[in-house]
Design brief:
The structure holds two protein chains of two kinds. Chain A is of the alpha+beta class. Chain A is built from 20 helices and 35 strands. The N and C termini of chain A lie far apart (about 85 Å). In chain B, about 35% of the residues lie in helices and about 15% in strands. In chain B, a hairpin with a 2-residue loop joins strand 1 (about 5-10) and strand 2 (about 15-20). The chains are: A alpha+beta, B alpha+beta. Chain B: GO terms for molecular function: 2 iron, 2 sulfur cluster binding; metal ion binding; oxidoreductase activity.
């Protein structure tokens, strides 16, 4: 085994396809040929199909459930109700937020679409027939969909199971529909600053309820093997290991007897983090019937019941000097959590990382309080392509800065510039408790403004306003600015856990004798391309080509324990674990090379894909040679083989940032908008695969476009969900989606092994305020301060009408 | 409801199907024939993940009864490439990062395949309009459009070379 062909260093680097390579995705050959393996593609012998009877009411007592007729339907084998689950203690389940949630309606329902009974049948058509035949008698109760009304003294009691319990998972409850109060920062000092400030801008900013809506809905296949006592659970799980632990805790099945497998996942965006009644019912149904049971929700189930996002009423006050230096920030959030608190946040953060709401600005003092509230809406509160409430926080501060600019009569770009945290202030300690790792906001900002010719745009805008006033045009021009700072990569075990499980992540590597490898991780890709990018990280660390490295995720029987993929945590945490495991491999490889070359370890240096004797470049051993030697040689003091595992507990979060500018034309008479230009500069630290980064940015911006310009989960006063299908729930098509220009700066994270920060969620976080600010900015000259999203054509028309622009 | 006998042709192969008249084509394909390329993303004809080609037209298989397509020729994404060789559209989707999670991809490529027969040399605008019946939640479409335009260019170039 020799590999001594002379090949230039550059060519060797190129061949690895390591960090920085525009490597094409290894996933694509399968996906483009229709050979993906998603949960609904899984078939098992004798597999049954389960589906739910759901409540048509938002708040009602369940008087009776009659399953007799349903059980006579051909193909229907069983109908589960809460009464069947109660003896097993499975009629309720714990949520990730320390609350509990009904698996099947236990005496009452709290939102439209809530799961009432689970019909198990031979196929999905028989299950649908069975659902039709289940007779449920309801007695309607008063509905409350407004979180402010829910907190009135005489509001209906939603959670009767909590009656008298005035302390919840996150401290005292003030009212029967109140969940928690979460306070951060210095209240007295902030109020003192507000009282003495030159200028205080005050506004209510609402970030409406929406939904991640991945193209593949949630589902699972549960298979209980009664012979060996093992449960196999396939499902759309963004956190397969956590699901295994949860299933074990609530079912009593020992964890080693549970195998959870996340197959290919058709998009997640936060929708697939939590545990849903469908999972529990499928497991129970498989135990009851002794057969595999599949449950896959349809789109209406998905939009109406599994994992809404946002729904934050954010009241803000921002203080500044008359020159525009921000002196303090105050915020109170009324957080609508729906019928159960099923938010997917680290345990100690009931409002996620909303306390990143000081954003990119050096704000000396701040105070934040969040009140969680129960209403008759679906539970969830997941991070829709963002890290735990960071999108809400970014939208809040980016709106407040714009409103302050109006108050001060200043240019919003300049106001941002004079308040940015300066490059030499990092690591920066924010007033609400975070330590920002690195950043260079001024450089990014100047680059972005120059790229779009900001001065020129403002001139054009002023001319447009004049032309509009003269009656020469009916279109206004909006310039939407955003500079966002994210907080991702949860997180350090000392303060981040979910259900007590520390939020580290992991990578295990085995090098095969012929110099190829398999790496297994605790994460799971949902389209991010992990099989491509994690191999690149490893290629750079261990000097074997990425094409020779298989990446495997999602099977809890084979992968090391990890907390999964959400909150942009895969690169910051599992990516770091991958690099660290690679370094362990390299450390052992160095000893092997030293033995083979008969030199001391310290006489060797690493060079791309080999160890070279210092000062003697002709004497080296490639990783390929070392890999074989590890299986072939009896090396004194060293175990055979070449393997490593790393469990990485990040010392800090990472703080990606970016500058986005949206230029929008708005037709005042129709409310129709057109995005003329969108420029997105992202700084995610070290860039692993620029092609994939760009793809992530395009996708996140399109989700942001949807949210800002039309997408919402809306309810009427009766608690009917008005946006339960893709007819009503806006998902942009190629026709409505603009062309994006992407750009970057690179400010590596100082604490991440390769300096990477994570990028998948930045465009959603930064995109929403950029689109929304463009709408607001178009009407600034006519006195608009704040108008709530989504800015669909009707609402934009109403803005124009309200400002008297229709004559 | 009694089952009925239907004959359909899928990717060039004649198939005998026994199905209830209410059975949707997408379920016949996925569950009876194990053709799992076409996916279900909604059940209201909005998302296009289930797009197949029926007698030369793009059709959403989630809202068509199998009974309605008896005697017809159906092509799915599985019928586009040859074994061991990607179709040029599949190749270009890979080359230009036109997919992420892959869930919309089979429907998207099947639609693009038909679109390029309808308009062999489309403009970007025609591509965007032509695939507006297919939703993607991951890519923002920019690279999908790029992939389709690139495939059109390659197909046209090889067409010209042949002529």
């Amino acid at each position: 085994m020799t590999d001594q062909t002379p090949i230039s260093r550059e060519d060797r680097v190129e061949k690895l396809k390591g960090v920085g390579s525009q490597r094409k995705r290894v996933e694509d050959a399968r996906f483009t040929q229709g050979k993906g393996n998603y949960v609904d593609d899984i078939k098992m012998p004798g597999m049954l199909f389960g589906d739910f009877v759901r409540s048509p009411y938002a708040h009602a007592r369940v008087v009776s459930i009659n399953t007799e007729a349903a059980l006579k339907v051909p193909g229907v084998l069983a109908v589960l109700t809460a009464a069947d689950l109660a003896p097993l203690g499975l009629h309720w389940m714990p949520t990730l937020a320390g609350d509990k949630q009904m698996v099947l309606a236990d005496g009452k329902v709290l939102y439209q679409g809530q799961e009432v009974a689970f019909v198990v049948a031979t196929d999905r058509y028989a299950a649908a027939d069975g659902i039709e035949a289940v007779e449920v008698e309801y007695s309607e109760l008063p509905v409350v969909v407004d979180p402010f009304k829910a907190l009135l003294p005489d509001a209906p009691v939603l959670r009767e199971d909590l009656e008298g319990k005035m302390v919840g998972a996150h401290g005292p409850r003030k009212h029967h529909n109140h969940i928690f109060t979460w306070e951060q920062g210095d209240k007295d000092a902030t109020e003192a600053v507000l009282a003495g400030a030159d200028v205080v801008a005050e506004e209510m900013v609402y970030y409406h309820r929406t939904h991640p809506c991945p193209l593949e809905p949630c589902g699972c296949v549960a298979s209980m093997d009664k012979v060996n006592g093992k449960l196999t659970l396939y499902g759309t799980f963004q956190a397969p290991h956590a699901i295994r632990t949860v299933v074990s805790l609530i079912s009593g099945i020992e964890e080693h007897n549970i195998r959870v497998i996340s197959p290919d996942i058709g998009g997640g965006f936060g929708n697939k983090v939590g545990a849903y009644p469908g999972y529990v019912c499928s497991v129970v149904a498989s135990i009851v019937t002794g057969k595999p049971v599949k449950w896959v929700e349809d789109r209406m189930d998905n939009l109406m019941t599994t994992a809404f996002a946002r729904d934050y009423w954010m009241k803000g006050k921002i203080a500044a000097t008359k020159e525009g230096k921000i002196t303090g920030l105050w915020c109170h959030v009324t957080a609508d959590h729906g019928g159960f608190d099923a938010c997917a946040d680290p345990t100690k953060f009931p409002a996620g990382f909303f306390n990143i709401c000081t954003g990119s600005y050096d704000i000396p003092v701040a105070y934040l309080a969040v009140d969680g509230v129960y209403t008759n809406k679906a539970p969830g509160g997941v991070a829709y392509r963002c890290s735990f409430r960071v999108t809400e926080a970014a939208y809040f501060i980016e709106r407040m800065v714009e409103i302050l600019a109006i108050e001060l009569g200043m240019d919003a770009a300049e106001l941002r510039r004079i308040n940015f945290i300066k490059a030499d202030q990092f690591p920066y300690h924010s007033a609400l408790g975070w330590e920002y790792d690195s950043g260079d906001y001024h450089t990014a900002w100047d680059k972005a403004l120059a790229a779009v010719d900001y001065e020129g745009l403002r001139k054009e805008q002023a001319e447009r306003v004049e032309a509009f006033k003269r009656g020469e045009t009916r279109k206004l021009l909006g310039i939407g600015l955003t500079h966002f700072t994210e907080i991702v990569g949860a997180g350090p075990v000392k303060n981040c856990d979910i259900l007590g499980l520390g939020m580290f992540d992991s990578c295990e590597i085995r090098i095969h004798p012929t110099g190829s490898a398999i790496a297994r991780l605790g994460t799971i890709s949902q389209g991010q391309g992990h099989a491509t990018t994690f191999a690149q990280i490893l290629a750079s660390e261990i000097g074997l080509p990425a094409d020779s490295i298989t990446v495997e995720e999602g099977d809890t029987d084979t992968a090391p324990y990890g907390l999964g993929t959400y909150g942009s945590r895969s690169t910051p945490v599992a990516g770091a674990a991958t690099a660290m495991a690679g370094r362990k491999i390299r450390a052992k490889a160095q000893m092997i090379a030293a033995y083979l070359l008969e030199v001391h370890d310290n006489d060797l240096e690493w060079d791309v894909d080999r160890f070279v004797v210092k000062g003697a470049p002709e004497r080296f051993k490639t990783m390929k040679e070392i890999a074989f030697a590890s299986y072939n040689q009896a090396i004194p003091g060293l175990e055979p083989g070449l393997e490593a595992v790393s469990y990485y507990d990040p010392p800090n979060m990472t703080y990606p940032f970016g500058a986005y500018i949206c230029v929008m034309e708005i037709d005042v008479d129709t409310g129709v908008h057109e995005i003329r230009q969108f420029y997105a500069l992202d700084d995610c630290g070290t860039r692993i695969n620029p092609m994939i980064i760009e793809g992530q940015v395009h996708g996140g911006l399109t989700e942001a476009l949807a949210i800002a310009m039309g997408q919402e989960i809306a309810y009427d006063e009766m608690g009917n969900c008005k946006t339960g299908t893709l007819m009503d729930f806006f998902v942009p098509t190629a026709w409505e989606t603009p062309h994006y220009t992407t750009d970057h700066t690179t400010t590596p994270s100082p604490h991440h092994p390769i300096g990477a920060k994570g990028v998948g969620e930045s465009p959603n976080v930064g995109g929403v305020p950029a689109f929304s600010n463009a709408v607001h900015d178009a009407f600034r000259a006519f006195g608009l301060r704040q108008s709530h999203m989504p800015h669909d054509h009707w609402r934009i028309w109403k803005i124009a009408n309200g400002l008297g622009l229709h004559g | 409801m009694g089952k009925q006998h239907y004959q359909i042709t899928v990717n060039g192969e004649a198939k005998d199907i026994l199905a209830e008249p209410r059975e949707l084509l997408i379920h016949t394909l996925r569950e009876q024939l194990n053709i799992t390329g076409p996916h279900v993303g909604c059940e209201t004809s909005h998302c296009g993940a289930c797009t197949v080609d029926i007698d030369g037209r793009s059709i959403k298989a989630c809202t068509v009864f199998t009974a309605q397509v008896a005697g017809k020729e159906i092509t799915t994404v599985e019928g586009l490439g040859e074994p061991g060789k990607l179709h040029i559209l599949q190749e270009m989707f890979k080359e230009h990062h036109g997919l992420q999670c892959g869930y919309c991809t089979p429907g998207m490529i099947t639609r693009a395949h038909r679109l390029l027969q309808e308009i062999p040399n489309p403009t970007e605008e025609e591509v965007r309009f032509g695939i507006a019946g297919n939703l993607c939640r991951c890519t923002g479409y920019q690279n999908i459009v790029k992939s389709i335009l690139a495939a059109a260019a390659v197909m046209n170039a090889s067409q010209e070379a042949a002529e």
